[in-house]
């Protein structure tokens, strides 16, 4: 499985990830990206049928703010 969260400290609200993976990313009121699936905690497994678009978004992020791993993150993004 894949797990993902957005580092909102480095996200520049460019909108690219939502184009690549509209089923994974949404935007807050400042236009910063966050993972819709698990409230951007990096603890919820991305559905397998969304993994390809996830990797497209990860590659396409100009600031490397999309953090992807094979195991759950320890709630890294929840301290926003
Ligand atoms: Fe933020 Fe990267 Fe998504 Fe652009 S592609 S909105 S910088 S996370």
Automatic annotation (TrEMBL):
Protein name as annotated: Ferredoxin
Residues annotated as domain 4Fe-4S ferredoxin-type: 2-30
InterPro entries recorded: 3Fe4S_ferredoxin, 4Fe4S_Fe-S-bd, ET_Ferredoxin
Domain of life: Bacteria
Pfam families registered for this protein in UniProt: Fer4_13 (PF13370)
Cofactors demanded by this protein: [4Fe-4S] cluster
Keyword tags: 4Fe-4S, Electron transport, Iron, Iron-sulfur, Metal-binding, Transport
Source organism phylogeny: Bacteria, Bacillati, Bacillota, Bacilli, Bacillales
Region (Disordered): 59-80
SUPFAM superfamilies: 4Fe-4S ferredoxins
Role according to the record: Ferredoxins are iron-sulfur proteins that transfer electrons in a wide variety of metabolic reactions.
Native species: Alteribacillus persepolensis
């Amino acid at each position: 499985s894949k797990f993902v969260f957005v580092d909102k400290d480095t996200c520049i609200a460019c909108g690219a990830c939502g184009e690549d993976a509209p089923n994974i990313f949404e935007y807050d009121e400042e236009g910063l990206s966050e993972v819709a699936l698990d409230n951007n905690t990096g603890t919820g497994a991305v559905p397998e049928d969304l993994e390809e678009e996830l990797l497209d978004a990860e590659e396409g992020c100009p600031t490397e703010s999309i953090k992807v791993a094979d195991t759950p993150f320890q709630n890294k993004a929840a301290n926003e």
